[in-house]
Fold:
Amino acid sequence: MRMRRVPLFLFVVAAFTAGGCTRPGPAGPGEGGAAPAPSASTSATGGAKPTGPALPTEPALPASEPTAPGLEYRVSYDWGVPSNRVTVTHPLTPPIAWPPEPPLPYLVAIYVGDHPEGNPKYGRISFYFRGAFPSYNFQYVRQVLSEGRGAPISLEGNSFLRIQFVDAQTRDLAGHSTIKVSPHSHIGFPSLKSYGFGGDFEGYVTYGLGTQVAPDSDQVLAIRTGELRKPDGSGGFYYVVHVDVQNG
Structure:
């Protein structure tokens, strides 16, 4: 069953119509108290004109993946080949926070790393979210299509994995990207060659991974997914979903 799409504009309208009212609300898990309501500026005619709220100051994200020890790690899908769609569910009821925080888990960083010391050896891509873990699904496909338009995503490699985050977003209430750190689309690991953004549409965020198998092979590579709640060093948490691609 396809999960419910969330019309994000409703949350923006609700935030603006609330005016100067302050009300308590649920904060994202581990994110502390409720965020303040949007501020208003005074127009030339003396009336109050709402402005797009900005996110609270985000702790600086390093260019390399943070090394702080994580909490509550779990493997959500052990080594296998997802020829059919695999779904990992994290039920939530939006909004999970009040403005200026986005109403859904939002992506702030993407990191990649090669792990030749692993058994088996693998390449990893990690998606860092704020607020909570989103639900997600993944599957090997002939080509990865973008959200909304359905256009093919350009990826290096000869085998393609589609990852879709559900009840998630990559833009704040003012329309600015929430992603502060991300690698070049060319990854170049032995098996994990590239990744590409497939869009953010009504609470669905899609990425594609390009992987490399032996020429003329009909075998695809085993993958593993896992989740990690990681402290950000400022009292909050990152909610990390990682995808590992086994080296061929």
